[in-house]
Amino acid sequence: MAEKTICKLTELPEGGTRLVEIDGTKVGLFRLADGEIVAIEDRCSHDDGPLAEGTFDPAACTVECPRHGSLFDLRSGRPKTLPAYSPVETYPVRIEDGVVKLEID
Ligand code: FES
Questions:
Q1: Is the pTM of this model over 0.85?
Q2: With a 6 A CB cut-off, is 84 part of the ligand 1 pocket?
Q3: Distance, CA 44 to ligand 1 centroid (Å)?
Q4: The CATH classification of domain 2-104, taken from the options 3.40.980.10, 1.10.8.10, 2.102.10.10, 3.30.428.10
Q5: In a mutational test of the pocket of ligand 1, which residue from 40, 43, 46 has the highest number of ligand atoms less than 8 Å from its CB?
Q6: pLDDT of 48-103, one tens digit each?
Q7: Spacing, Cα 81 to ligand 1 middle (Å)
Q8: What are the DSSP calls for 62-104, one per residue?
């Protein structure tokens, strides 16, 4: 598991998102209403839709796939609505000295 530095915490305010690419894997980071940061792969399990571009609800901790509308829980990566039925990859996020770090293989 490698740890990658993403950005300063101040660059990702509550309700904010950020898309990064690490060794060919696109990952979306989302800062929730309570300040927690979660990260999922930016690829819908239904038909590879760009999940991080979907509508983000920071209070409900969900993102809606922009392609066919499946709603995903950002903590678990599990879809809450069809047509997707498989979870997407999630990644641990750590804050250290005001810097956002992501753990990824
Ligand atoms: S690609 Fe995401 S719901 Fe179809």
A1: yes
A2: yes
A3: 6
A4: 2.102.10.10
A5: 46
A6: 999 999 999 999 999 999 999 999 999 999 999 999 999 999 999 999 999 999 99
A7: 10
A8: EEE-TTT--EEETTT--BSSSS--SPPPEE-EEEETTEEEEEE
